[in-house]
UniProtKB/TrEMBL annotation:
Keywords: Transferase. InterPro entries: Glycosyltransferase_domain, GlycoTrfase_DXD_sugar-bd_CS, Nucleotide-diphossugar_trans. Pfam families: Gly_transf_sug. It comes from Paratractidigestivibacter faecalis. This is Glycosyltransferase.
């Protein structure tokens, strides 16, 4: 495998503080790797209707959804999003290529945490072909369903991946559980284990604005009141901000009723 870490940065803005910190960690904990940025200057995003239309809409994260697979297909190597901050040398994993990791909340295998492949890997090729056949839409409901995690996970499921949070071996792939690249974030901060290689500081730039309220509450409050309470508080504030007091309260009670019914059935 070529010793290069790829990442995407479209839109022309300066790198965020999170990105700068992550890149520094890659240089420290991925010794001997070239770090390569892909952007408007070195990738023809207009060659694919998905990335072209996402770029026109100013949705840079969805441009990178296609670009990462195209680059990995052609060159191989490692891809990580700029929110993935390494805290441990990943050299021991290099004997297990191809590999990726599970996101704790969605139980998806995700390139954003990490993926390492040789050029022309069949799973990566299938993802490229899927994006090249899809029509992009900026509709929030569409974007919520057609995520890069779901596309990648669907292709891995065809060869044996299960949506459970455990280390998995199938075909020639290794999929690490969430402790490795997506440790729980809750009371006290990140719950680092001895097998943890990175922490993921997702910006959620692709998320619909109202959902960013919940993400921000969870991010800021989890170290103090725990993840679950932070999620509840974030959901309440999100619904109130989105629908006002009357509509927001109605939605909140609707969610509570739904949870109670599900609990009774189970």
């Amino acid at each position: 495998m070529e010793k290069v870490i790829h990442y995407c940065w479209f839109g022309g803005n300066p790198l965020s503080e999170t990105a700068v910190k992550s890149l520094a960690s890659w240089e420290k904990f991925a010794p001997g790797f070239e770090v390569k940025q892909w952007n408007e200057d070195n990738f023809d995003f207009a060659s694919c209707s998905w990335s072209r239309d996402a770029y026109t809409a100013g949705l840079w994260a969805f441009v990178s959804d296609y670009v990462r697979f195209k680059v990995l297909d052609e060159y191989g190597g490692i891809y990580m999003d700029v929110g993935s901050e390494l805290i441990r040398d990943i050299s021991p994993l290099l004997k297990s290529v191809p590999f990726t990791a599970i996101e704790e909340s969605s139980l998806t295998a995700t390139t954003g945490l990490i993926v390492a492949v040789e050029p022309h890997d069949p799973v990566i090729q299938a993802c490229v072909e899927r994006y090249e056949s899809m029509v992009f839409s900026s509709d929030p409901d569409f974007l919520d369903k057609i995520t890069v995690n779901e596309v990648f996970t669907a292709e891995l499921q065809k060869i044996g991946f299960e949506r459970v949070n455990k280390e998995q071996h199938f075909s020639d792939w290794l999929v690490l559980d969430s402790k490795a690249f997506n440790p729980v974030y809750g009371l006290g901060g990140y719950h680092i284990k001895r097998e943890t290689y990175s922490i993921h500081r997702s910006s959620g730039s692709w998320v619909e604005p109202k959902y960013r309220i919940k993400r921000n509450v969870v991010r800021k409050c989890s170290p103090f009141i725990g993840r679950r309470l932070s999620q509840i508080l974030g959901r309440i504030l999100m619904e109130l901000a989105d629908g006002g007091l009357a509509v927001g309260t109605k939605k909140i009670f609707g969610v509570v009723r739904e949870k109670i019914v599900k609990g009774e059935k189970s």
